[in-house]
Specification:
mainly alpha, two-stranded antiparallel sheet, 4 strands
Length: 137
């Protein structure tokens, strides 16, 4: 391993570090509230990223805002589906959150002989001595 013969002086050390500078972080403006935000991060003021809410609570509110109530109908039957629509939207958001991938189960492998005879455990490998005895018989 290489070891320097002499200690590096203050001047040489400073000259070497002259190009090692801190850079100013890139900031952008939030498309929702207009606050300055670090690039590629969620806005700390409103919780939006690329014009969409990040928190689940905000997503549910955004779905309610997007779905406008249906035009006033003359009958009471038309009002009932309009009331169920926001509930359905909430259920969809909750379903997305609670869905989990099904657990994968692996099946133990068995040999063909074990399947034919109905054995549960796979057949053990035969030793050289056992193979010689079978060939002799």
């Amino acid at each position: 391993m290489a070891v320097p013969k002499k200690r590096t002086g203050h001047s040489a050390q400073g000259k070497r570090r002259a190009n090692w500078k801190a850079t100013k972080p890139e900031t952008t403006v939030c498309s929702n509230c207009g606050q300055p935000v670090l690039a590629h991060t969620v806005c700390t003021a409103c919780g939006y990223y690329k014009g969409e809410p990040v928190r689940l609570k905000d997503k549910a509110e955004a779905v309610k805002e997007v779905k406008k109530p249906a035009k006033k109908a003359k009958s009471a039957k038309a009002e009932a589906p309009a009331e169920e629509a926001p509930k359905a939207a909430e259920a969809v958001v909750e379903a997305e959150v609670t869905e989990e991938a099904p657990k994968k189960t692996t099946k133990k492998r068995t040999t063909k002989k074990a399947e034919e005879t109905g054995e549960k455990k796979p057949a053990a490998k035969k030793t050289k001595a056992e193979k010689k005895e079978e060939s002799a018989e």
